[in-house]
Design goal:
- This protein is of the alpha+beta class.
- Among the domains are: 37 residues, no CATH class; 76 residues, no CATH class.
- Helix content is 29%, strand content 14%.
- It has five helices and six strands, in the order ββββαβααααβ.
- It has a two-stranded antiparallel sheet. Strands 3-4 form a two-stranded antiparallel sheet. A two-stranded parallel ribbon has the order 5-6.
- β1 and β2 form a beta hairpin.
- α2 packs antiparallel against α5.
- The radius of gyration is 45 Å and the shape is elongated.
- The mean pLDDT is 74.
Length: 167
């Protein structure tokens, strides 16, 4: 606890030393606390700087590792130019004839859409055929004819991935 028994020249109370602290020293209007008693005797001399005995503080040194960044090369480019020009999608592996005939003969079950990669559309075609008791099979038949009559660039002439159908 601090004891306010003495007053300085301004009339304000000055704290006096408490148990475990060295007596206060006053110089002019400033006061400073001494070091706690027993500190120097228990832990040796007061610390100087941040160095520990036996260790030298120097600049940080990297270990003796030599790291070299690996050299990456571009993968080899194909010798053949791409088979499509600007605005024309590349030709895929799906056949226009196969997709059209699957649509005409098995369009009620969406087989041509499964073939072209339109899985959700094919499932909807199956459900429409079942709910309408077969009348929805006209949808697949008409799509089969549209695929057979399609030309390059039309939506019916592409698969689900955007590739043109082979003729």
């Amino acid at each position: 606890m601090t004891d306010y028994n003495s007053y300085n020249s301004n009339g304000y109370a000055q704290p006096s030393a408490t148990v475990g602290q060295a007596p206060l020293t006053t110089t002019g209007d400033q006061q400073s606390y001494g070091q706690q008693q027993g500190y120097a005797s228990e832990y040796g001399a007061a610390q100087t700087g941040y160095q520990q005995p036996g260790y030298q503080q120097g600049g940080y040194q990297q270990p003796g590792y030599q790291y070299q960044q690996p050299v990456y090369q571009m993968p080899p480019q194909p010798a053949v130019a791409p088979a499509y020009a600007y605005g024309v999608a590349p030709v895929g592996t799906k056949s226009k004839m196969a997709a059209g005939l699957l649509g005409i003969f098995f369009g009620a079950w969406g087989v041509h859409n499964f073939y072209l990669g339109y899985t959700s559309k094919a499932i909807i075609q199956i459900l429409v055929t079942l709910v309408t008791f077969g009348i929805g099979s006209l949808w697949g038949f008409i799509e089969g004819i549209m695929i057979l009559c399609s030309s390059v660039g039309s939506p019916s002439h592409r698969d689900a991935y955007g590739y043109e159908l082979r003729d």
